[in-house]
Amino acid sequence: MKFPGTNCDEDVRHVLVDVFGLEAEIVWYKEFAVKQWDAVILPGGFSYGDWLRAGAIAARTHAVEELAEARYLGIPLLGICNGFQILVEVGLLPGALLYNDSGRFVCRWIRTVVERPRGPWLALARDGQELDMPIAHAEGRYYIDEESYNSLLLNAPVLRYLNGFNPNGSVHDIAGVGTEDGVVFGLMPHPERASEELLAPKMFSPGGRVIFESISYSLKRGW
Amino acid sequence: MSAHLVEVIITNKSGVRDPEGETIHKHLILKKGYSMVMGVRTGKYLLMTVSASSAEEAIRVVKEVCEKLRIYNPIVHDIEVRLHT
Fold first, then answer.
1. Contact A102 B19 (CB under 8 A)
2. Which of 3.40.50.150, 3.30.420.40, 3.30.1280.10, 3.10.20.30 would CATH assign to domain B2-83?
3. Which end of chain A, N or C, is less packed with Cβ atoms under 10 Å?
4. ipTM of the complex
5. Most A CBs within 10 Å, among B25, B71, B76, B79, to test the A interface
6. Which UniProt keywords apply (chain B) (predicted)?
7. Which helix (H) or strand (E) holds B80?
8. pLDDT given for residue A103 in this prediction
9. Hey, are the CB atoms on A89 and B73 less than 8 Å from each other?
10. CB A109 within 8 A of CB A134
11. pTM
């Protein structure tokens, strides 16, 4: 789904179509109808210029409110970077994303680790698997209060920055979170920029692949 | 009906760090010798012009807008809604 200011839509489409051979289209948010799709990705960028708060305005569009209401349909939903911010703002995922501790936009490769992988986006990932991906954001400091963390995230799929790689001050080193069933998942790193060997710098490997391999597998065989 | 000016001030809750405020405090104010300034918190300011029958009604409308359209994020923000003077 594309909003004014979304800018990672072509990269996501490229990876889905050219790298993994899936059928995918970029859909303008005004033309979006949820029931036409087997899975939906909210890509990164700066929807509505990040005004008010990153993702806050896109979260109040008809398209996203329809997505939130359609939660019961069980359609796999992935939010990447600004897409994650939108999913948090509309309440499909818990917590909030605040300005980085550094107060700056940070763009670099990091290493994460998967915990409790399940659902369509992580079906093929192993518990404890390390995934390398780049981040590129100014508002990526994940925040959740301890009570919600204990009740919502200790049983859910979670992506954490590995020791020393937390780029923004996120609590509990959280880089991505999912619903308990993993059908809705959001993450700050960019898996679409880490799905081809050519794009990974020295010392890193393309850790985003498992997410697209998982959705490809899951849409054909279930999860 | 008349136009009322209503201010909305959004700040991080006390338990939520505010790196911008900390930087202004530590690297500007304290550095220039104003050690009596004990802390700085930044926020976002919105000024809404509201057509309403009374000031109270204007404030009620703005509060509703802030809640329903999630102008602030209750998980991390405090909000103050007050009449502009």
1. yes
2. 3.30.1280.10
3. C
4. 0.78
5. B76
6. ATP-binding, Cytoplasm, Ligase, Nucleotide-binding, Purine biosynthesis
7. strand B77-83
8. 86
9. yes
10. yes
11. 0.91
